[in-house]
Design a protein that fits this description.
2 copies of one chain form a homodimer. Chain A has 12 helices and 12 strands. Chain A has 351 residues and is of the alpha/beta class. Chain A folds into 3 domains: 63 residues, Orthogonal Bundle (434 Repressor (Amino-terminal Domain)); 124 residues, Response regulator (Rossmann fold, 3-Layer(aba) Sandwich); 129 residues, Response regulator (Rossmann fold). In chain A, the strands form 3 sheets. The first copy, chain A, has a 6-stranded parallel beta sheet, with helices on both faces. Chain A has a 4-stranded parallel beta sheet with strand order 7-6-8-9, sandwiched between helices. A two-stranded antiparallel sheet of chain A has the order 10-12. In chain A, helix 6 runs parallel beside helix 7 and helix 8 runs parallel beside helix 9. The structure holds a DNA duplex (30 and 30 nucleotides).
Chain lengths: 351, 351
DNA sequence: AGCCTGCTCTAAATCGATTTAGAAAGAGTA
DNA sequence: TACTCTTTCTAAATCGATTTAGAGCAGGCT
């Protein structure tokens, strides 16, 4: 099996190719500059103890040979990786997309690679991703864990001392593990008060089933708000994927008395509520009010436009990065604001 | 040099900490099984030439110690990486999101990690990503290149022999570099014929400016179709990001005679046309017809719902993977189909 | 002279795996 | 007995970097 990529090894039938030299290594550079690899390493890493002439010479050689250090070898030796992991629950959700983009943006400035992975709401996949990262000696991980973050515990065992950040999770794992998320309590409160001000009495809250739930805090706050307002909390639990979610919403909307408004934890999930409403021929706004969360770009284009809680998602990504990088610590709770649009209106007078 | 690894070696000043053992290495395993590291390697990799007893012994030791091979070391030694790179033009576009998801899904089955990166329509970032990947010895890359894929040439030089796949690019780089994309010619034709059947005469086509354009083939086909239909092609070029795109669309819609319909290359871009139309107080459907491309989940929820070309994006991701993995070769042109909705209607009779 | 200090520089070890070359032991054959 | 094969195993080299320990030398000081 010939897979030595760097070897010139002109294939018999091949046309004359410009001799593709082997990739330059530190040894090559050192040799070209007439010094030892050790000195070359010092010079290239800006370490002291190298005479100006030699330093000059070495840098020149490196430039001429197009030397690029081998990341693998460096990481193996130093034990430090220039890679940050990011595991999200659903990469198809534009929310996480923007978080990734923000993180990538910040990482780029520091020449760090972000390894993005999708657990698709499965702890199993989460576990495999974590093992993968550990085997790669990644020692910084931002994760939006499924449920109550069991798998993160495994990660902490696998790579003790690794920097870890929880994204959009209500699980608290200790002071060393900061959490980055929008201010969930505020978000629920704003949504709730907005709906109450419009006159809604019976309000639903859409969330994941308990095992997969990662927004316990919001749910708690919601129930609390309902109690204060002497309203009955309608909790709709559904796997936030595929057909399950539509079915659950449809059945909640069919129950009597039906909620006149629903609060969701993402615009993405709100889309499903739209679909369910279409299915039942309910008019959104008039028959059923909906509040989303995230303010995705498409939300204002929906029919009707979606009332939602705006969040700076890229900022979340950047903040996650800063904590992994060691440029910040402690929790970060991003500010939120309500964007009132046409999906929320006063409820129709009940007969 | 103390290399008796199994010894807990309680440091003198250390408090009684639950002995955090070093991660098991091959050497540890070999030592525990009473064999050389070489034999342990053979056994663990299922190579022949190991007696059944020793093999059993080694596997048991590995299991008990929770041995996980170090990916970095393995990759350094063998020169083969279990990583596939993916560079997209805009990871915020749900389109690429799904491509990534599809690729990740397929990769997962083969225990391969996908390194996803976002070039944000910048060749500069593209170049940096490519160098990063090369430094990591990644030898499989799927890329949705910016413009005419100049940077991919550098990649091919940096890692000659690497498997490379172009995603959604009209550039042809040779037989060894397969392309994976929806059938662009068919897509444009379907959109065009749909609009013509409705009675549209003056049709616009939204595309990136020449330097960033990666859908030359579709544009060509569009111009061809116009010529055949004796209609004037209205080409709207704009950077497909931020404010630039809205401005360009607004000015195109203000020109006289204005196009009565616009074909876009993505639903994502169609969103911007919606915004521009709102700005000009044009009613989509009645005053301006729009055909998107991709059929994102939100497209049917827009106001009005978006007529678009449906594409199986996850499939594209899987096909890209298969080519990187060596399970398939040659170009793949995904099937497309028109989904007629409310954003396309007959043009209003011109006064 | 003798000794210490500081500056450059190099040899060699190291990270953790794979792989090559060959050693050791036993079986079969002439 | 001597020789050739097999089979099973190990020592050592290797991938490409970083890092430690220390060599060599010039200059300053007693």
């Amino acid at each position: 099996m010939d897979d030595d990529i760097s070897a010139p090894a002109a294939q018999p039938g091949e046309t004359a190719v410009p001799a593709l030299r082997r990739r330059a290594t530190l040894k090559t550079v050192a040799h070209a500059a007439g010094v030892s690899p050790a000195l070359a390493s010092f010079a290239l890493n800006g370490k002291p103890g190298v005479s100006p002439e030699k330093r000059e010479e070495i840098l020149r050689a490196a430039r001429e040979l197009g030397y690029q250090p081998d990341t693998l070898a460096r990481e193996l030796r130093t034990g430090k990786t220039a890679v940050h992991g990011l595991i999200v629950r659903n990469i198809a959700n534009p929310y996480f997309n923007d978080v990734l983009a923000g993180m990538q943006e910040a990482a780029f400035e520091h020449d760090i690679t972000v390894l993005a992975m999708d657990s698709e709401y499965s702890e199993d996949r989460e576990r495999r991703h974590i093992r993968h990262l550990a085997a790669r000696r990644v020692n910084s991980l931002a994760i939006a864990p499924v449920g109550s973050a069991h798998v993160v515990q495994e990660w902490l065992t696998l790579r003790p001392g690794a920097r870890t950040v929880l994204i959009n999770s209500s699980t608290h794992l200790g002071p060393g593990i900061p959490r980055v998320s929008p201010d969930g309590g505020r978000a629920v409160t704003m949504a709730f008060e907005h709906l109450r001000a419009l006159g809604h009495q019976r309000i639903g809250f859409l969330t994941a089933p308990e095992a997969l739930r990662s927004d316990e805090d919001r749910l708690t706050r919601f129930v609390e708000l309902c109690r204060e307002a002497r309203a009955e909390p309608v909790v709709i639990s559904a796997e936030l994927q595929g057909a399950a979610i539509t079915t659950a919403i449809v059945s909640a909307l069919r129950s009597r008395p039906a909620p006149t408004a629903i609060i969701t934890n993402s615009d993405f999930a709100a889309h499903y509520v739209y679909m369910a409403a279409h299915e039942l021929e309910l008019r959104i706004g008039d028959d059923l009010s909906i509040v989303g969360h995230d303010d995705l770009p498409t939300s204002q284009l929906l029919n009707p436009s979606l009332t939602t809680i705006a969040v700076d998602r890229r900022r979340l990504g950047r903040e996650a990065f800063r904590r992994l990088f060691g440029a910040a610590d402690g929790d970060y709770h991003g500010g939120v604001s309500l964007v009132a649009r046409d999906s929320t209106r006063p409820p129709r007078p009940q007969p």
